[in-house]
Amino acid sequence: MEQLFEVLTSPLRLLDILIDGVSSGAQYALFAAGLSLIFGIMRLVNLAHGDFIILAAYILFAISWALGALGLAPELNPVLALVLAAPILFALGYAVQRGVLNNTLGKDVLPPLLVTFALSVIIQNGLFLVFSPDTRSIDGGALSTAGIDIGYRQVPLLSIITVAVAVAVIGGLQTLFFRTPLGRDFRAVSDDPEIAQLMGINRRHVFALAMGVAMIVVAIAGVMFGLAGSFDPYLGPTRLLSAFEAVIIGGVGSLWGTLAGGTILGIAEQFGSRAFGEAFKQISGHVAFLLILLIRPRGLFPRAKD
Amino acid sequence: MSPDALLSTTNLEAFYGDFQALFGIDFSVSAGETVAIIGANGAGKSTFLKSLVGLLSNSPESIHFDGQAIGAMPPSRGVDLGLALVPEGRRLFGSLTVEENLIIGGQHTRRQGHWTLETVYDLFPVLAERRKNPGQALSGGQQQMVAIGRALLSNPRVLLCDEISLGLAPIVIKDIYAAVPRIREEGTAMVVVEQDINQALAVADRLYCFQEGRVSLEGAPDALSREAIKAAYFGLGAAA
Amino acid sequence: MMTSTPSIRQNTPTGTLALIVFVLAAVLAACLPLLGHTLALQWGKEFLMLLALASLWNLLAGYAGLVSVGQQAFVGFGAYVFLHLTLDPSKSIGQDWSQIDPLTGLGKNITLADAFPAWMFIGPVHPLLSVLAALAFGALLAIPVSWIVFRLRGPYFAIGTWVVAVVIQLVIGQLGWLGKGTGTAISLDYAFGFGDMNAVHSLFQNLNPDSKKIFAREAYRFWMMLVATVLILLAILAVIRSRIGLALAAIRDNEAAASSLGVNAARLKLMLFVAVGAATALVGAIGAFDESGLLPMKNFSLLEYTAFIIFIVVIGGIGSFEGPIIGTLIYFVADKILTGLVGEYFYIVLGVIGIIVMLFAPKGLWGLVQERTGFALFPVRRTVVFSK
User: Fold this and answer.
1) What's the pTM?
2) What is the ipTM of this complex?
3) What topology is assigned to A2-133+142-295 in CATH?
4) Nearest-Cα residue of chain A relative to residue B83
5) A176 CB near a chain B CB, below 8 Å?
6) How far is A200 from chain B (nearest CA, A)?
7) Which residue of A lies nearest to B111 if distances are taken between CA atoms?
8) pLDDT digits over A258-294, tens only?
C-alpha cells in the first residue's frame, strides 16, 4: 500500500510511469500493427503472429551478428540487417499466405485459427532446435545503451527511437492505405471481397501482398524488440497477447487507435509494477484490458464499420 | 443464336449448392446491342448476370465471349475481356471516396477507350462535385451513378446492369436512364436487368423474359404484345 | 396418403452395437488395475484424460462454435481446488529454505495454515467430494469468464479465452504457497490418506503381496478418471442427440435463422461453456498432477491441455462424436511411437500433420469416413419413418 501511495503522490514517479509506459506502449503498437493490418484486410487472426515477431528477431539477430563478425559498427548492424531481412520476411509472408493461409479463408472461422496455431507450435520448436533455448539479444552498441539526460533520470535512446519508429510505421501504413493504389485495393478487398474481384483484383495475390507488408512490420517490431531486451524461442505467445490487447483496447480497425491502445497497456503495466510490485506488471496490463473490454467492448477508437 | 453474338450462353445451368437456379438458358447479345431481361423476383436474373461475370461457376462451354469459352472463368478476369457488371444494390466500396471508387474500376485493366474520369464526370456532373466524399455518403441515385461509372471505367464491350432502378424515385430513374443512350453511342453492348417493364421496353433492342430459371419469352419489344409479356412474366400459359 | 403418423427414429443397429462395445470397453478398462502394472495405469489415466478433454473441447468448438484456447485454466483450477480441499492444513507442504530451523537443520516447515486464514479450511475432504467440488467451482469460475469472453467474436474470442487463462494462472500463481515460483512437491499421500484407500490397498495386497500403497492410489485415481470420462462421454452423446444438439446444428448453419425459430443461441452457448468448464475442472482435479507435485506452470500448461487437445480433435474430426475418440487413439499411439523416432522434432511433426489435415480434410479422418459412407458409430441424425 505504501508503494501505491508513494506512486500516486509523486509527480516524478508518475512521469516515470508515463515515460516508460509510452516506450513499452510503442513496442506493443509495433507488435499490434501487423496483426491489425491482416485482420482489417482479410479478417484473419494469425495466432502465430507473436512467433513471427520472435522469428524475425532471431533472423535479424543472426544477420546482425554476421555483419558484426564482418567488422561493421554495432550501431549499424541492426539497421542494415533490417534492410537485408525485410525482403526475406516479405517473401516468407507472401509464400505462407499464398501457399497455406489463403486456403483456410472462408466462412468457417476454425481452419485459420487451427492452422495458425499449428504454425505457432512449429515456429517455436523450430527456433528451439536451431537456436537452443538460450536467450539472445541483438547488439546495438550505443543504440542500446545510450540515454538522454533529463535531470533526475536517463531516458534510454532506444525508447525514443522505438516511439519514433512506431509513429513512423503507423503513419507509413496509413499512407499506404489511403494514398496508394495498393492501399486502395486493400481497402476495397476489405469492404467487399466479392465485388473487388470484379474490378480485376486477384484476391489471392492481394492477400499475399498484405501478409508480406505485415511481415515487414513484424521485422521492424522484431528488431526493436531484439534490441530492447533478450528473447528466447517461446516468447511468441506473450507478444501476441500484448498485440491483441493493444488492438482491442484501441479499437479494431484503427491503426492510430492501436497506438493509443499500446500506450495505455504500457502505462497500465508500469503503474502496476511500481505501485504493487514487479510481479504485478503483467497482470496489471491484463486487468486494464479486461476492464476496457467490459466497459467499452469495441475499444476506445473503433472504426464505425466493424 | 446470331452468328456474330459477342456474348452468348448455351444451355446455361446454375446452382447454389444443391439448389438449381437456372435451367438451360440460351441467350445472346451482339456488339452494340442493348438487351433487356425482365422477370419477377427469384426468376434468376441476378444469378444469370453473376454467372456471366464468373461470380458463379458454370460449365466452361456454356458461356462464350468473343469466341472464348468463359463459363469457368475466375471473376477477376472479366474486366480484361471487356465484361463489366453494375451490381444489384450498387455495392460501392465504403472505405473509398467517389473518385477512388471510379478509379478502381479501371485500375486493373489495360483496356483503353472513351471512358475516363473526365468523361464519366461529364456523363454524371453531380459526381464531380462530390468526388472526395465517401462513396456511401451519397444519395441512392448518385451511388448508382458511381456504380455505373465504375463499371464504365474499364471500357467494357458489354456492360451488365443489374436492376439499376431499384429503390430509386422515378425522377432519379429518368436521370440514370438518360445516360444509357450516351453509353450506347460509344458502341458498348448492354444487358439491362429490370423489374420496371416499361423502362426495359423503352431501352431494349431485344427483350428476354425469365421465369423460374427459364427463358419464357424472347423477341424485339415491338413484336411482343402486352398480354404475351404478362403471361411470360407470371408464367401463365404458353408464351406467344 | 398416410394412415398413421410417421415416427422419428434415431437409433441404428450399428449405433446400438457401438454403445454395447463402448460399455464393454469401459468394463474391460476397469479391470486394468488387476494387471498390477503401474505404467499401464498411468498411461490409461493419461489416455482417458486426453479423451475427456478432447471430447469436451470438441463440444465447445465443433458444436457450439466456441474455439477456446484457454481451457487449460480450468484444468489447473480444478487441480488446485482438489488439492486445496483434500490437504490437511496442518500437514507440511514443503520447506522454506530461506528460514532454517535451528533444531532440525532443515528449512522451516510450511503448512497450508501458514499461508491461508483459518476460515478457508474445510479439509481434509475426501477426494471424491473434492473432485465434485472442483466440478462445482469450475462452473462458478466459468460464469465470470463468460462475461468477459462472450464480448468477443470469432478469432478474438479465442485469444480472449487465452488472455483470461493467463490471468487466472497468474492470479493463482500469486496466492501464497500455491505459487512461489515453480511450486512445491507435495506427496499425494496427503490427499489420499483415507479409509477407503487402505481398503483398496488391502484388496491389491490380496492379489499381490508386494503391491505398494502408491499402486493402490494410482488405481483409485484411474478408476475415478474412468468413471468421469465415461460419464462425460455419455453426457456429451446425450446432449448432441437431444434437441439441444439439433439447436446447436441449426446455430452452426445459420444463427439468424435459428434465432427466428426461437433458439436462444446466447443462452445455449453460455450453458455449454459453463458445463464444459465445470467438466474440464473435474478432469483436471482428478488427473492434472503427478508425483512431481504441484507445479503451477505445468498444471496450466497451454501445450499439454490445449495444443495437444486441439491436435487430437483436428486429426480425429471436429464436430463429430467419434472424432475425438479416433483422434485420441491416433495421438496417443503416435506420441508413444514418434517420440522415439523423431525425438525433438515431435512438435514440428505434429504441427505439420495438423496443418495438412486441416487443409485437406477439414473434418478430420472421421469426417472423411463420414463423407464417403455417411456412416456413424454413434448416430445423431434423425430419420423419419413412414409406416404403411
Assistant:
1) 0.86
2) 0.89
3) ABC transporter involved in vitamin B12 uptake, BtuC (1.10.3470)
4) A198
5) no
6) 4
7) A200
8) 999 999 999 999 999 888 888 788 889 999 998 888 8
